[in-house]
Amino acid sequence: MRRLAKAKPQREPTIALINIVFLMLVFFMVAGTLAQPLDKTLNLVDTRDLEGRAPPDTLVIHADGRLSYQGADQPDAAAYLSSLSAEDRTVIRIVPDRALPATDMIRIARDLRGAGAGKIMIVTERGLE
After folding, report:
1. What are the boundaries of each domain within the chain?
2. Of residues 6 and 106, more confidently modeled
3. Alpha-carbon distances, residue 26 vs 17, 30, 34, 79, 109 (angstroms)
């Protein structure tokens, strides 16, 4: 009579999976805390009340719709573009006042495009809130 060999019990692969998940958890916990937290007594600089100054190569659109370039008032978009070289007309940067209605900004952007402006970029303020 032949003896039947006992079948080896199969190991569950879930132990290996649990180990991998645990190692990933530890990795992300360590990676997420590499940056030192700010000191609790540190007060960051507040720039909300500082008067901003537009970059020198931008068209400023004031709250009342008035245009100015390098401190000089511009009668309209066409007059502003006529003072620029063909190369400078390819990218126009505008700085709108925060209180400028969106409809006025769109109208001025259309006027710039109609007068021959290429790409129009709006320069804005980036804040940490």
Report:
1. 59-122
2. 106
3. 14, 6, 13, 63, 52
